[in-house]
Specification:
The protein is mostly helical. 70% of the residues lie in helices and 0% in strands. The chain has nine helices and no strands. Helix 2 crosses helix 4, helix 2 runs antiparallel to helix 6 and helix 5 packs across helix 6. The longest helix is centred in the N-terminal third of the chain and has 32 residues.
């Protein structure tokens, strides 16, 4: 995603890599905050004081990661300035510039509270809709779980799968669903295995198709074609510089990019 933003498009100017990375980090952090908040809310209503230790530890780790990120955002400007004084080497200074751009991109929402409130609200609505999908699927297979129970399972699975250990979290999410359903009283007439596969089909596999269509419609295919053509043309544009240099030595030499 950072590379795609860096390349730009017909109507968008290229976005610096640091800013692209910062937007992704912010998005994941806001998603995690919404999942943890909603999951803890529904979990408190469902389990109360009966939550197992591993589940409490998972939520504690998620809260710790969010707290560390928030602290890093606050301390980043001072840390970058302190690091910059360590060395005057070009590579070191360039890395400090990159870190400064990344830190600035992470703090951008703090300077736009209205936009930040809209984005937080959207994140809560998106993950709440994920819980609604899980609840409707469970009801369709005969599992009479309450909405609070279904939402707690779905949101906790989202939290446990937020850092995928396999491509797309395949297998990881299914295992998390099984572990979470084991905490709740089973429904004898429900096919929970079918419910898990249905939820994954709706929330993951269908999303791949939908997002693929949107990606193609927004011109990403044209972007890939442009990259391919530029890559083919690049070798022919590089000139061989004679040992003694010369007036035309720099012509055709590609400039280093960020």
């Amino acid at each position: 995603r950072s590379g795609g933003l860096r390349l730009g498009g017909r109507t968008l100017s290229p976005t610096p890599v640091a800013a692209g990375m910062g937007s992704i980090v912010l998005e994941r952090a806001l998603d995690m905050a919404a999942i943890v908040a909603l999951g803890a809310l529904f979990g408190g209503a469902v389990l109360r004081t009966e939550a197992p230790g591993w589940l409490l530890a998972s939520y504690a780790v998620a809260v710790g990661v969010l707290a560390a990120l928030a602290g890093g955002m606050l301390l980043a400007p001072a840390a970058v300035g302190w690091r910059r004084r360590w060395s005057q080497a070009i590579c070191w200074q360039k890395s400090a510039d990159f870190a400064g751009q990344l830190a600035a991109s992470l703090q951008i929402l703090a300077r736009q509270p209205r936009q930040a409130a809209v984005i937080v609200g959207e994140s809560l609505a998106i993950w709440l809709s994920d819980a609604i999908v899980g609840w409707l699927v469970l009801r369709s297979v005969g599992a009479e779980y309450s909405f609070e129970q279904s939402a707690f399972v779905a949101l906790t699975v989202d939290m446990l799968s937020s850092i995928p250990l396999t491509p797309g979290g395949i297998g990881q999410s299914e295992a998390a669903y099984v572990a979470m359903f084991a905490l709740l009283p089973s429904a004898p007439t429900a096919n929970l295995g079918a419910a898990i596969l249905l939820v994954r089909a709706i929330n993951y596999w269908s999303f791949l198709v939908f997002s693929g269509v949107i990606t193609a419609a927004t011109g990403f295919g044209e972007l890939l074609q442009r990259v391919r053509l530029e890559g083919v043309a690049a070798p022919g544009s590089v000139s061989v510089v004679p040992p003694g240099g010369g007036a035309g030595a720099s012509q055709g030499s590609p400039e280093p990019s960020a």
